[in-house]
Specification:
Length: 518
Amino acid sequence: MELVRREEPQLREVVWFAVRCRALTLLLQASLLPPALFNLLIPDHAADAFSPPRLSEPGPWDVLVEWLLGGLSHWDAEHFLFIAEHGYLYEHNCAFLPLYPLSLGAVARGALWPLQRLLRLRSRLLLGAVLLNSLFSTLAAAALYELGCVVLRRRRVAFLAALLFSLSPANVFMAAAYSESMFAFLAFGAMWQLEKGQSWLSGLLFSLASGARANGLINAGFFLYSRAKRFALQLQVGSGSVRKLPLLWKQVLSLASSALLMCAGIFLPFVLFQYYAYLRFCGPGTGLDQTIPKPLLQLARDKGYHPAAVDGVKPPWCSQGVPMVYSYIQDIYWNVGFLRYFELKQIPNFVLALPVTLLVLWAAWTYISTNPWYCLTLGLGRTKSEEEGKPRDGFCCPAAFVYVVHATALLAFGFSCMHVQVLTRFLGSSSPILYWFPAHLLQEHEPLLWSAGTDNPPFGKPVLGKSGSCGKGTPENPIVRLLLNWRLMTPLSKSILGFFLCYWVLGLILHCNFLPWT
């Protein structure tokens, strides 16, 4: 994909801002501050999390890498690094899909192979995770900008949203050895390609996304909706003329077959991984207990982990009608299920998820109240402005309908069935709405952004500030402008940027010190 084009100064600024934000994240995590100061002020929490033993003694360079980047290897990152190094040895490792650890292994054993004399594999995997996630988060910001330009048709709002992505409340998970950055790039890139009409490339990216995170399966809805929308528009365009029934059925079969084919491609990586897990954990005993290093086998005994096919004992899910390891692990190991998290002791976690919950609900309400009839027809009809050839632009445009539905569905599922504190990163890596709607609010209600060169400032409002660009075609960064004029901002703008920045910083401090975060 051509993500950085010379004729797009705003896109260049999106990329450079993403690079600078990622560098600042790594600097704060790896500089003298977190290891020396944060660990003194907030000692590492003794979490009962997955922490496998190291099988080799670290060298001096390994100690340096761990000291600088070790904060990015906590919590679920340990699973990804372990899988990349040892494969799927334990049953509960199968909750983490293979694309990201495979990519880590390829980078550590390939691109970073020359460093093997200095760094053991674990250190190269951690370094590879930092490099990969820096790349993917930058590409995701660029893809989000391009997607916003196509869907919203307001370049300034798309610009703001892409800049906000680099200040994402889920920032620490975009930097740590998690699959969020990879998934965001694949999902946003696939959405962009689908909007451009590149169905096959979009299907490939969506398919890869479902190999990185299980919620990628929901993205099949974008294909189903695009085909339903196309068919509905064809019916409306031809409603005034006599249509031949055979031709109509041919169109129905063509659209249905292409949609099913694409959806099958999206589901394929997930299904193949379930089959792989079945062969690995439910197949006949292969003496794997002889090949598992003794420290890892001892860890399994101490913690009650279930290695693959040890002593021929098969886990209970192997005998289910549809043996699916992923749902079994979520149920047994993490107690994920409908309303299971609704307990008094989880109130702090619900408070942690409250800002992103309110933001998505506000976005959905704003869209529905602006387009009530369009929403009632599921976006399959044509608005009056579309019939006149002048469709509404901005956040409330018709093209944004499917993205609002997607975000609302993710919110409903996450709030009712998941550990609710993960909603911030769950939505932050999956839905453009988390960035489009705040950008819409800032553009509509912040006078500091009503400058020459912005998209459609509210009618009758004064035009303040400098030009929308500065110096030799380089666009002024509106987020930087707002931060430099914090005291002049409206309370709404302070609330939005305060949420993004507080979660950006607090997540970095708490996660890197092994304290629970989103």
